[in-house]
Structure formats: structure tokens, C-alpha cells
Backbone:
């Protein structure tokens, strides 16, 4: 592994991390439509900050191969994926029944390039899981991913394909247990539902609860059957601040790590839990949000960082840039460097913004009750449930450097792309790599077996 991916020492553990960062230059071009709060342009803003802060030089920067239809169907229903592939803005009038059936319309609109967008963000998350499985990095980052509401047969909450479930399924090929943590302000319902009846995946969601989308995530919802107590929900009220949030996050996650001992962790870093979000009502600072990343990094367990919600896009870019630095162990300046989107960040032109003075409706008594209840649930678990592997599914394949035919075939998908990205403000070039998943029937058999054993929700 090239030393260029090694991070700088930082934090209490003081050790380096190798980071793989997935980014497709086209992802910022997708547009949900006028007035829609979800703006993929925020990924381009985040990437520009990473470039001008000089963080790309400390990571392996990768352009993911698009997830194929077969990859998406490891979790999603065939007819739903086929519909996403076919539907266009011009054909919606002919597909009204299908649009209603698959919940595609207002919150989840049809826009130009919809299926390619799904392939792109899902490909980055699956690719990150593959890199972790191969031991090619300690932390994989895909800020375009984290779309946690999508269900097996329908879109939901701006999410069409559940890249998180697909990435976890990839991780389960290598790891007996995978931990999923969600710090988006919205409940991670799609991921919880997918793994609600298995102990191979533990889901922990910290979210606003009560008359708030998607309406799920009660503290009493904790799994079923073999998955009993392997779903943890932390229901929160408006205005929660950094100190209150960490008074729950750290003790609960510490106990989870001690009892469950996951082989890999997926952390969904939805930035709509930040203060001042267009759709959110929490009061976290960028540093308070990033403290969750810092804490998970300290366990030195393979870690996949994903994006998610976030609708005040200047703050989303601030947050994910800073959290990339945390993953690397690089502390970056508050004063923002000049870059092509600098006007978004005025008048402060800083990375950090002060939280508001909104009321914190989460009382100390309420927080104590939640913490005690969830720690009690964790005490009922057997330590590190074992899994009987009949045959380990093969890892997704990586092309070797000398396989020119495969590489050239990939590049035909991106004729304008020469394998490098130039940034005027930075000397030198950033090498980007391709990932090529290869079909393997045994992979599908392994997923089928997991489904039959309660690993994936089948309804």
C-alpha cells in the first residue's frame, strides 16, 4: 500500500489510519428539482474544501464503479430496481401506477440521471466495504452515501437505493458482526428494518422522535426473534446540544463495543443534526457532531463513514470536511482557504459556526432514563454472538494493474476522465482508482442464506 494514504497521528490513540475516499466528479450534477431540499451539489462543495485544505494528498482518492443492477438486487426487489432503471421525467405520465407503488413522486422525484445517481452513490459505499474487507484501508469514506430510508421495494425520504444495507451485506462476507450507527436527525428506519430479525447486525440510531419523519424509532422498538435487543433506538427532542448528545453517545456506544465486539462499523454521519439545518431541529456544532467520528476512530475497528441528510449545504460541507480531517487525524484551520465556493460561507468564511441559543428540550432526567433503559437492554445480550460459517463468500474482485482490458473497459464509461483530477490551487495530481465488482453466484447464495436465517427483511 502506498504511504500516501497514511494519515497523520492525532488524538488520544496517536496512531495513523489509512483512509480511502470515494468521489465521482459527476455526482454534484444531479438535481432533484427546484425547491427540493436535497442537493447533491453539497458533495462538490465538500470535495472542493478537501482539495483546498490539502486533505486529498493524505488519502487514497477513488472513483467508484457504478453499482450494477445485480448488485442493487442483493437487497432491493428486482421489479423496483428495474423500474428505477427505466423511469425518466418524460415517461412519468405512462407510469403513474408504478410511481405510486414504489413511492416515487414528491419527496423522491424522478429526475434526469436518477438511476445513474443511485448507481454512483451505492457503488461508493459497496466499494468502501470491499476495501475494508481486503484490509486495504482502516477507514473508508463515501459522503455521497448514507441514504438510510430506502426500503426493499420502495423509495422513501429522498432515498431510492439503500447503499448502507448493500455495504453491510458486503461487510458480512468477511465479518461475523457489523455495527451500524446513525447520527442523522431522522431515524435510520430502512437499515433497521432490513436487519431487524438478525443478531449479525446491530443498529443504533440517535434521532428526533415524535411527530417527525419517518415516525419510527421508539425506544421500545429493539428487534425481533434472533434480533431481539440488537436494534437500539435513542429518541431525542428538539435543541439537543453537544454535551447532552455525548452524555448518551459515548456510554451507550462504549457498552455496545464491549458487548457486541463488531468486526466492522458503519457510521452514517447525516449532517441535518447540526444547528441551523433547514429541516432539522437539533443544536449540534460541527465539532460536537465530529466527536462521534473521533470516538469511533479510537476503537481502531474497520470503519465506513457515510453521508446522509443535511440541507443547509454550506454547513454540510463544513461538517464532512472537518470529519474527513478527524478520520485522517489532521486538525485543520478554522479560517477557510480561498476556493471556488467561498461565497457560500460568508460572512464568516470559517469552518466552524456557533450553535444557536435554542432551548434544549432534553432534560437531564430524560437523558438519564434513556441511557439507563438502553444499557439495561445491552446487559441482556450474550457477549459477541457467534456465527457458524458454512463457507465464506468470496470477496468482490479487484482488477490488477496489468489487466489493461478490464481497466480500459471501465474508462469507456467515463470518456472525459483520464484517471486524474487537477486542482489549480494544488501542485501535483491526485491519483484515482477504479473498483470493478465481478458477478459471482456464490455471493448471491450467501445473501440468500442470510435472508433465510433472518439476516435481511424479506417482506
Residues:
Amino acid at each position: 500500500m502506498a504511504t500516501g494514504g497514511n494519515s497523520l497521528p492525532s488524538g488520544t490513540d496517536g496512531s495513523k489510519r489509512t483512509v480511502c475516499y470515494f468521489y465521482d466528479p459527476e455526482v454534484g450534477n444531479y438535481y432533484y428539482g427546484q425547491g427540493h431540499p436535497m442537493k447533491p451539489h453539497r458533495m462538490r462543495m465538500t470535495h472542493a474544501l478537501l482539495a483546498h485544505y490539502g486533505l486529498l494528498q493524505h488519502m487514497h482518492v477513488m472513483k467508484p464503479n457504478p453499482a450494477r443492477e445485480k448488485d442493487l438486487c442483493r437487497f432491493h426487489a428486482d421489479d423496483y430496481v428495474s423500474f428505477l432503471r427505466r423511469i425518466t421525467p418524460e415517461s412519468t405520465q405512462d407510469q403513474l401506477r408504478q410511481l405510486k407503488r414504489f413511492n416515487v413522486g414528491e419527496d423522491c422525484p424522478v429526475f434526469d440521471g436518477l438511476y445513474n445517481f443511485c448507481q454512483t452513490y451505492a457503488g461508493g459505499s459497496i466499494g468502501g466495504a470491499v476495501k475494508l474487507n481486503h484490509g486495504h484501508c482502516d477507514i473508508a469514506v463515501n459522503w455521497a452515501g448514507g441514504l438510510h430510508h430506502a426500503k426493499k421495494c420502495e423509495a422513501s425520504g429522498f432515498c431510492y437505493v439503500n447503499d448502507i444495507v448493500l455495504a453491510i451485506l458486503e461487510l458480512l462476507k468477511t465479518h461475523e458482526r457489523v455495527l451500524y450507527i446513525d447520527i442523522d436527525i431522522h431515524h435510520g428506519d430502512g437499515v433497521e428494518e432490513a436487519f431487524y430479525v438478525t443478531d449479525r447486525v446491530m443498529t443504533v440510531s440517535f434521532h428526533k422522535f415524535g411527530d417527525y419523519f419517518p415516525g419510527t424509532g421508539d425506544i421500545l422498538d429493539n428487534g425481533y426473534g434472533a434480533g431481539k435487543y440488537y436494534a437500539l433506538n435513542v429518541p431525542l427532542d428538539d435543541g439537543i446540544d453537544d454535551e447532552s448528545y455525548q452524555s448518551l453517545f459515548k456510554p451507550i456506544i462504549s457498552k455496545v463495543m464491549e458487548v457486541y465486539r463488531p468486526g466492522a462499523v458503519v457510521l452514517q454521519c447525516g449532517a441535518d443534526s447540526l444547528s441551523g439545518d433547514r429541516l432539522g431541529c437539533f443544536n449540534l456544532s460541527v465539532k460536537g457532531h465530529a466527536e462521534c467520528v473521533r470516538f469511533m476512530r479510537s476503537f481502531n475497528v474497520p470503519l465506513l463513514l457515510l453521508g446522509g441528510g443535511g440541507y443547509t449545504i454550506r454547513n454540510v460541507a463544513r461538517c464532512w470536511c472537518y470529519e474527513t480531517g478527524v478520520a485522517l487525524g489532521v486538525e485543520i484551520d478554522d479560517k477557510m482557504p480561498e476556493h471556488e465556493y467561498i461565497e457560500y460561507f460568508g460572512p464568516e468564511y470559517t469552518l466552524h459556526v456557533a450553535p444557536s441559543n435554542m432551548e434544549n428540550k432534553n432534560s437531564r432526567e430524560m437523558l438519564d432514563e434513556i441511557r439507563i433503559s438502553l444499557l439495561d437492554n445491552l446487559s441482556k445480550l450474550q457477549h459477541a454472538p457467534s456465527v457458524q460459517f458454512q463457507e465464506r463468500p468470496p470477496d468482490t474482485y479487484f482488477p490488477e494493474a496489468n489487466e489493461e482490458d478490464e481497466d480500459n473497459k471501465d474508462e469507456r464509461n467515463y470518456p472525459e476522465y483520464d484517471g486524474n483530477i487537477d486542482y489549480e490551487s494544488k501542485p501535483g495530481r491526485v491519483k484515482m482508482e477504479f473498483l470493478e465488482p465481478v458477478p459471482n453466484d456464490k455471493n448471491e447464495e450467501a445473501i440468500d442464506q442470510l435472508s433465510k436465517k433472518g439476516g435481511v427483511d424479506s417482506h
The two ends are 42 Å apart (CA to CA). Residues 89 and 371 are 47 Å apart (CA to CA). The mean pLDDT is 86.
